[in-house]
Amino acid sequence: MMLTTNPFDDDKLHEECAIFGIRGTKDAAAHTVLGLHAQQHRGQEATGIVSTDGDEFKVHRAMGHVGDVFGKPQVMETLEGIAAIGHNRYSTTGESGLRNVQPIYADFEFGGLALAHNGNLTNALQLRKELVHRGSIFQSTTDTEVIVHLLATSRGPVTERLITALRLVEGAYSLVLLTKRKLIGVRDPRGVRPLVLGKLGDAYIFASESVALDIIGAEKVRDVEPGEMITIDENGINSQFPFNRQEKRFCIFEYVYFARPDSVLENKSVYEARKRIGEELARENPVEADVVVPIPDSGVPSAVGYAQESGIPFEYGIIRNHYVGRTFIEPTDEIRHLGVKLKHNANRHYIEGKRVILVDDSIVRGTTSRKIVEMVREAGATEVHMRITSPPTAHSCYYGVDTPERQSLLAAQHNIKEMCKLIGADSLGFVSIDGLYRAMGEANRDKEHPQYCDACFTGDYPIENVDANSGDSAKLTLLREQVR
Ligand code: AMP
């Protein structure tokens, strides 16, 4: 296990993840395994579950996929209990290792508590420095651990402490927390990352995506609202809005890429959204061609939309090997390059002698596009036209999607013509930001009050990246005042 000697030098504390929580069934951990398995696409590096029988806590965390870690009866036997929470951790280019695997568990004055987080806090380093100065000893390099220390230094019952702690943090968070008696789900005031509430018999469930409810046969009750904190205990369900109301800014990239197509987020089908983006893309970027080919998997529904709108036949001209993780999982550039070849193969018969439209969701560093264009040309395509179902990714995400620093983003360094040349395509077209919003059912993007967080495309960041700016923030001052 590699440890960073000085976590303050590590600016890579962000995570994109899946969370799940359930209370009110004797098979809580088994349900959690299934819920995490359905959300494996949100994080494949590590996974963990904490369960409780109302008396003791049981913890199992490990590197690896859900099926590998929890597919062993001897592990599941140790996780009995009527409530559990779980987490899938996404690989980032930052430090990985067991000490960063969630859920985090800690013992407090009020008893034990486990916590799992999806998102990224933008003032975690600033708060951490202050907490360390005051004597906190951190166990991990995750931003999430800051919440644990803020809970420890707050006063009152757990829900009050949580409100105090979360008023001090800035950023994107969907959280599930577990105590002996309570399961708590919270979403940040902007609602950047998803969180749904479900029900199965007497049990309540929280999950990042609705597919985690489908797999266990639970019904979706509703999305947890931005800024909402829901507590589930023996008295039933209680909802509070303890934070200042803010404009909702759900991450539009969840629809473009991150979520599973069979998920419904914020009452919108991800598949439907992707298909409609493909239609917009076809209207905005038409080209004469013989076949529309998705780069699987995320490009598939959009390619269906593109093909239907353009009248050009759809074919699976590229086949994906499902036993390789997402390209980004690979830790180095060299392996990332290899990853694309490991993952995709040209279906030559449908490519040879054809003018091909390739549909993918995004160009980040350009690695995937370049490799695939080359592969399709090698398979005999006469023309290759790349179509992308998002606007150019020109800005980093500070809210939990693992985009690289700006200088590594192809669109931050080059215009579309240059990008086209770099990836070796005959033409390159992106959906416009308004086209993307139209596909989401909006008339256009409201410039004053954008309906979504689209910072990776527009640079319009709804939440300050406190840790990137020097100087003390208002929340740091608040923390200092609280200890006086
Ligand atoms: P790149 O190869 O660097 O241009 O990255 C683009 C490819 O990575 C696309 O095929 C996407 O499907 C995928 N992708 C985009 N964003 C992410 C992300 N945040 N995490 C993992 N994969 C991504």
From TrEMBL:
- Residues binding Mg(2+): S298, D360, D361
Q: Which cofactor does it need?
A: [4Fe-4S] cluster; Mg(2+)
Which ranges does the record mark as transmembrane?
A: none
Q: How is the cofactor bound?
A: Binds 1 [4Fe-4S] cluster per subunit.
Q: Which GO terms describe its molecular function?
A: 4 iron, 4 sulfur cluster binding; amidophosphoribosyltransferase activity; magnesium ion binding
Going by the UniProt record, its keywords in alphabetical order are: 4Fe-4S, Glutamine amidotransferase, Glycosyltransferase, Iron, Iron-sulfur, Magnesium, Metal-binding, Purine biosynthesis, Transferase
Catalysed reaction(s) here are:
5-phospho-beta-D-ribosylamine + L-glutamate + diphosphate = 5-phospho-alpha-D-ribose 1-diphosphate + L-glutamine + H2O
* Any single GO BP term: 'de novo' IMP biosynthetic process
Which pathway does the protein contribute to? Purine metabolism; IMP biosynthesis via de novo pathway; N(1)-(5-phospho-D-ribosyl)glycinamide from 5-phospho-alpha-D-ribose 1-diphosphate: step 1/2
Every Glutamine amidotransferase type-2 domain range: 17-235
**Chain sites annotated for binding [4Fe-4S] cluster:** C251, C397, C453, C456
EC number(s) for this protein? Answer: 2.4.2.14
Kindly report, in one word, the top-level EC class recorded for this enzyme.
transferase
Gene3D superfamilies, alphabetized = 3.40.50.2020, Glutamine Phosphoribosylpyrophosphate, subunit 1, domain 1
One Pfam assignment: GATase_7
Which InterPro entries does the entry mention? GATase_2_dom, Ntn_hydrolases_N, PRTase-like, PRTase_dom, PurF, PurF_N
Keyword Magnesium listed? The answer is yes
Instruction: Quote the catalytic residue positions.
Output: C17
- Function of this protein? Catalyzes the formation of phosphoribosylamine from phosphoribosylpyrophosphate (PRPP) and glutamine.
Give the family per the record.
In the C-terminal section; belongs to the purine/pyrimidine phosphoribosyltransferase family.
- PANTHER family, per database record: AMIDOPHOSPHORIBOSYLTRANSFERASE (PTHR11907)
This chain's protein is named Amidophosphoribosyltransferase
This protein's species is Aestuariispira insulae
